[in-house]
């Protein structure tokens, strides 16, 4: 459940992006401070990274997912990765309304509800009017996504196993949502995934919780392959030593996603009249969304440049708002990219800092054999002046969100293979870091709480 509003009937299912969470309330009380299993003395010993293989694509699936083992004994859940939100949640057997999975694949709470006085409960509510009648009451949550899809449920704590690149295997208890009431807007079928892995920078995110336990640096990154799949990582072990372009994060106390700017739109190496764009990096959105003014500028520039070329508007293709067809059906972007000029986003605060967008970063080939513009009008779908950098633009780039240095970085990358791994390890996702998706499921938990494991 992620991404931006799906406007078109042939999009495979509804996607969401939690860039507009509901204005929930929260009043910090005398919350119990959880015991930490690791002291400052061994922080650097345990600080490492975990990597996870991704599945999915921009088109036709429209999403990228990761599989996580949760609970003990562990159970596998496929979750949409979403840097536009921080709350992770899974469909919950409570019972469950609006769930897409059969009951035996739902998460079942087991006396592990987070209490409403817990400090983490306050992190999922935005205002100070949160009502906690009794300290023993469960912590409710509700998150509404940009297209008005939503998840309602309670917070729980459970084990999520991680296998780190330094060889350690740990199984901390972390908090996440158990969603028992999901709503989807529009006429499309709901996503078939089990929930959302929120990668945002709020304190309730799994990333922040792992960092607070001293397990990882407060860094997360992803590499989405245009061929499908890719990888996700927590920690800083996989960051290349050179070649990364860094720009500062824009900070806001009420937002839990990653944004940067201002940026200027560049077309074919030349500056345009589109300036001052603040950009949200959102792995939960299939496509890129600009405000109406910037969107129309892109459409005008591309359309004007295509005059006299062997492309005509394909008004009968409902895949996306603007599509073109050729004399014969296109099989891949390599057939058409010669007709289109590169775009770029230039971050003016730093000289020569740009995010380059070749045609592959803003076009798709549909099942009808046409080429379509993967930049959409965000104002038209209710995003007002927000500008979203979605998966289509993030493809074939390693994108790093460094919350410690408050910066976002990217570099062109082969997302089908992990960088900076031991050369003696074999395969596209070498053992032991990714063959089991960065997690394990058959060992006793290493944790500060009793587990009953023998």
TrEMBL record:
Domain Peptidase A1: 64-411
Keyword Transferase: yes
Active-site residues (renumbered): 82, 282
PROSITE patterns: ASP_PROTEASE, PEPTIDASE_A1
Annotated GO MF terms: aspartic-type endopeptidase activity; transferase activity
GO biological process: proteolysis
Keyword terms: Aspartyl protease, Hydrolase, Protease, Repeat, Signal, Transferase
Secretion signal span: 1-26
Annotated family: Belongs to the peptidase A1 family.
Name assigned to this protein: Aspartic proteinase Asp1
Source organism of the structure: Glycine soja
